[in-house]
Amino acid sequence: MTFDLILKNGTVHTPGGAESVDVGVRGGRIAAIGTVLGDAGTVIDCTGLDVLPGCIDSQVHFREPGLEHKEDLESGSRAAVLGGVTAVFEMPNTNPNTDTAERVHDKLARAHHRMWCDHAFYVGATADNAEQLRELERIPGTSGVKIFMGASTGSLLVDDDGALSRVLASGTRRVAIHAEDEARMNARKDLRVEGDPSSHPVWRDDESAMIATKRIIDLARKARRRIHILHVTTPAELQYIGQHKDIATCEVTPQHLTLAAEDAYPRLGTYAQMNPPIRSQAHRDGLWHWLNQGVPDVLGSDHAPHTIEEKAKAYPASPSGMPGVQTLVPLLLNHVAEGRLSLRRFIELTSSGPQRVFGLTGKGRIALGYDADFTVVDLKKRWTVGRDWLASRCDWSPFEGMDLTGKAVGTIIRGHRVMWEDTLANEAIGEPVRFEATEFV
Questions:
Q1: What is the mean pLDDT of the chain?
Q2: Catalytic residue chosen out of the listed positions 302, 371, 373, 378
Q3: Fewer beta carbons below 10 Å: N end or C end of the chain?
């Protein structure tokens, strides 16, 4: 047999486990898995490397249109593939918000072969567009509907039960939720301390998150609508979500699994500020407990860049959010190296998990007929996160200077070697992600 590409001599992570096999690619899809496959136009020697299913980051904010001084679709996706990410789901709180069919199609047009990775875009829910969401969520290239229950970057907010119920009643796809209770946070604004970002988790406290999580699960059950709760930060929420898995899936982020308030705020100041907040070491340990119990379904970076000048403002005038798409894979591989996370669980959280939760077509596993998306990693590589490696337009990372073990050395998307050893291909080839819910629209 003849192939366009063969990956040879690597440890390949198929649904059956790790195997010493080669992978043949033809026409952008996996055409063979075995030992002696044949000839290929391109052969990549993966000796000493692990070939994982392409990693999917299901929560990024690339800021285009309207906020391109922070990031844009090209720069954000370039950071993604340099970090080993093959596909992203981008959030709707841009300027203007992505809340109409016209604005969804505008993003898809901006992204075509300008984004380095494959992509899908969320539709932002509002009180005004609730009845249109059942049509908007079925536009090919959309990853579903996103609800902000608590105010964050941008103007998208749906915080009362009546409007939330109308949104949940309109459509069938799983709805992504930013679960912080707006009323409680408004009542606690006086707890913010001028110039002290460590007061951020005091203001946006555990109960702000728990109230919103309980409210949205109750409303989702009444509406018979599946939901996906983003960036969960408290162990109590994960314990509660674990009792409602029939209707609710959830995400945790590398930031909340890696940083702890006791160190992060004194060391990083406003650069540690995000929504929901970085919380205590006890919270972080609790997230790991429930992750190892199998409760979180996916890991997303919540890549949310702001410029150095913006983050330098005194708290609470400083904006919330930090970049993370480029560091998602290496941070998690470092947790693998240090024994907190198995490689199998990592794959579940970054590839097969997103496929299952969001109903992706042709992605999420190394299997015949699937897209030839691979994140090729060196599990033993020791290195330091340097600013010269970062590609985000914001030009900083809370993990700069961190010593890590494990790094993506290759990003292959639909058989195209988009990144190899920190070097990009000559052109971007990103295409919309396909979903079961929109495949035959």
A1: 97
A2: 302
A3: C
